Amino acid sequence: AQSVTQLGSHVSVSEGALVLLRCNYSSSVPPYLFWYVQYPNQGLQLLLKYTSAATLVKGINGFEAEFKKSETSFHLTKPSAHMSDAAEYFCAVSGSGTASKLTFGTGTRLQVTL
Amino acid sequence: ETGVTQSPTHLIKTRGQQVTLRCSSQSGHNTVSWYQQALGQGPQFIFQYYREEENGRGNFPPRFSGLQFPNYSSELNVNALELDDSALYLCASSLLGLAGLETQYFGPGTRLLVL
């Protein structure tokens, strides 16, 4: 069984500040890990993914995440927040098999203030 | 390249009715997955279709059923609607190849309200 836990349902940062969204995973097989972003009344957009290559993964819009096996973590960071980053962020895990469903966390709502 | 599209965007039904939601896959993709996202929650996996066959199912009752067509588009059918079925239904398409299942790309969703 696989699961992810997102710590903090709401995170608020000032514009220009560091963004850190936390995700810990549990998996009995080598995991594939994903971060998706969801803007209000929209579907999910892929930010980045880890598929057992480099442990530091760079995504779109300046986001990156680091896979740490020893900590079972895959935290999402961005050096400088922008107002347009305000959205809901979901961490997800899947196996590498042929019927790999995504298992999502409960999400973290990022608020960016002036 | 056309992305994943879903129809309708919004739908209102009453308890006991049946509903059909539709999804068109991204060009070149052969796999479709459906997810249910209740308000304030993360998406939950309903099922996945590959080559017109169900290829994995989550913890949803049989009244949730699906189809995948030769052009890889898909339908999600829900019978005997319950109030708790009110949610955003997301379709995701991907390519299942020799290397396994590739990244899933999501459509904008259909928001279903059951009264």
Secondary-structure topology with pairs:
The complex is a heterodimer of chains A (114) and B (115).
Chain A: E1 3-7, E2 10-14, E3 19-26, E4 32-38, E5 44-50, E6 56-58, E7 64-68, E8 73-78, E9 87-94, E10 103-104, E11 108-113
Parallel strand pairs in A: 2-11
Antiparallel strand pairs in A: 1-3, 3-8, 4-5, 4-9, 6-7, 7-8, 9-10, 9-11
Chain B: E1 5-7, E2 10-13, E3 19-24, E4 31-37, E5 44-50, E6 53-57, E7 64-68, E8 74-78, E9 87-94, E10 96-97, E11 100-101, E12 105-106, E13 110-114
Parallel strand pairs in B: 2-13
Antiparallel strand pairs in B: 1-3, 3-8, 4-5, 4-9, 5-6, 7-8, 9-12, 9-13, 10-11
Report a brief summary of the structure.
The complex is a heterodimer of chains A (114) and B (115). Chain A has strands spanning 3-7, 10-14, 19-26, 32-38, 44-50, 56-58, 64-68, 73-78, 87-94, 103-104, 108-113.
Description:
The complex is a heterodimer of chains A (114) and B (115). Chain A has 114 residues and is mainly β. Chain A has no helices and 11 strands. In chain A, the strands form 2 sheets. In chain A, strands 2, 4, 5, 9, 10 and 11 form a 6-stranded mixed β-sheet that branches. A 5-stranded antiparallel β-sheet of chain A has the order 1-3-8-7-6, with no helix packed on it. In chain A, a hairpin with a 4-residue loop joins strand 7 (64-68) and strand 8 (73-78). The radius of gyration of chain A is 14 Å and the shape is globular. Chain B is an all-beta fold and 115 residues long. Helix content of chain B is 0%, strand content 53%. Chain B is built from no helices and 13 strands. In chain B, the strands form 3 sheets. In chain B, strands 2, 4, 5, 6, 9, 12 and 13 form a 7-stranded mixed β-sheet that branches. Chain B has a 4-stranded antiparallel β-sheet with strand order 1-3-8-7, with no helix packed on it. A two-stranded antiparallel sheet of chain B has the order 10-11. In chain B, a hairpin with a 2-residue loop joins strand 5 and strand 6 (53-57). Chain B is globular. The N and C termini of chain B lie far apart (38 Å). The interface between A and B is medium-sized, with 23 and 27 residues.
